[in-house]
Amino acid sequence: MPTLLTFGDSNTHGQVPFRDTRDYQRFDALTRWPALAARALGEDWTLIEEGLPGRTTAMPDPVMGAHMDGREGLKMALASHGPIDWLTIMLGTNDSKARFGASAETIAAGFAALVDIATQEDIRQRHGGFDILLICPPTCVEAGLPRG
User: Fold this and answer.
1) I need a labelling partner for 20 at 20 to 30 A (CA). Which of 30, 86, 116, 126 fits?
2) How far apart are CA 24 and CA 78, in angstroms?
3) Exposed (0-12), middle (13-18) or buried (19+): which is 74, by Cβ within 10 Å?
4) Paired sense of beta strands 131-134 and 46-51, if any
5) What is d(CA 39, CA 43) in angstroms, rounded to the nearest whole number?
6) What string of pLDDT tens digits covers the 148 residues of the chain?
7) Nearest 5°: phi and psi at 23?
8) Rounded to two decimals, what is the model's pTM?
9) How far apart are CA 53 and CA 16, in angstroms?
C-alpha cells in the first residue's frame, strides 16, 4: 500500500476558520483536504496527517513557540512515520504574519530548507525514496470581526 504523508499547518490540520482564538474547531476526518486526497487516490493508499496550526516553513514563532518551525517538525515526522511514498508540504500562510516580516524570497528559502531535509541521504534510504509535492496555500481572506 502506498503511503501519503501530508505535512502542513492549520489548513492540513483542518482547523475551521475562527473569529476568536479560544474557539477551536476542526473539520471532521472526512472533510479535511488530506482525507479528500486519500479518497481520490483510492482505498489502497494509507494517509498520515501531520498538520499543526501555526506551523511555519522555517521560523520559530516568538509568540507560539519554537516548535512551530517546520524544519524540526518535518524531521520528527519523517523519523516517526514510514516508509512513505509521497510527501506533500503545504505551508507558507503563517510565514506571512506581520511579526515575521518575511519576503516571498524568505518564504521560498524556508521551503528549500524543508526540501533539503526531505532529500537527505539518510532520510531517503530510510523510506526507500519518495516523491515530494509542494502545495501553495490558498489566498488568505481576512474577514474581521463584525461591528456593533
Assistant:
1) 30
2) 27
3) buried
4) unpaired
5) 7
6) 999 999 999 899 988 877 777 778 888 988 999 999 999 999 999 999 999 999 999 999 999 999 999 999 999 999 999 899 999 999 999 999 999 999 999 999 999 999 999 999 999 999 999 999 999 877 766 666 555 5
7) -95, 80
8) 0.88
9) 11
> Domain coordinates of the chain in residue numbers?
3-18+38-105+120-134
Cα-Cα-Cα-Cα dihedral sign, residues 112, 117, 121, 124: negative
* CATH for 3-18+38-105+120-134, options being 3.40.50.1110, 3.40.50.300, 3.90.226.10, 1.20.120.1810: 3.40.50.1110
How many whole angstroms separate alpha carbon 65 and alpha carbon 75? 17
Buried b (16+ CB within 10 A) or exposed e, 92-112: bbbbbeeebebeeeebeebbe
